[in-house]
Write a structure and sequence with these properties.
By secondary structure, the chain is of the alpha+beta class. It has one domain. The chain is about 25% helix and about 40% strand. It has two helices and six strands. A three-stranded antiparallel beta sheet has the order 1-6-5. Strands 2-3-4 form a three-stranded antiparallel beta sheet. Strand 2 and strand 3 form a beta hairpin. Helix 1 packs across helix 2.
Amino acid sequence: MAIEIRRLIVSKDELKQISNDFIAAGESDGPTGIVTELKVIKKDPISILVQIKTSEDPQTPFSLNEDQLILAFIRYCATKKIPVSRSAKKTVKITDKDMIAFDMLLQSTI
């Protein structure tokens, strides 16, 4: 059985922009605004805390779990025209170099 693996690796600054685009598009269940700060609060499973500047509040904390980060990466891939298989298993993890990895694993029955 063949396994196809795709991995996108981004820095925390790039993840901040990906999260900002995801939140600004209204695709998260949190407040709409601009992400001003990002902090990893849990590594496994990954969870991040972002500070969002809204029209009512200069800093509103909002947590993004792995499922929400996967949706944010899928949106990023669609924007950048990076193919993402619907049937691939998708995960987001912190690498040993303190980067963020979006992994897509697709098993084939060849």
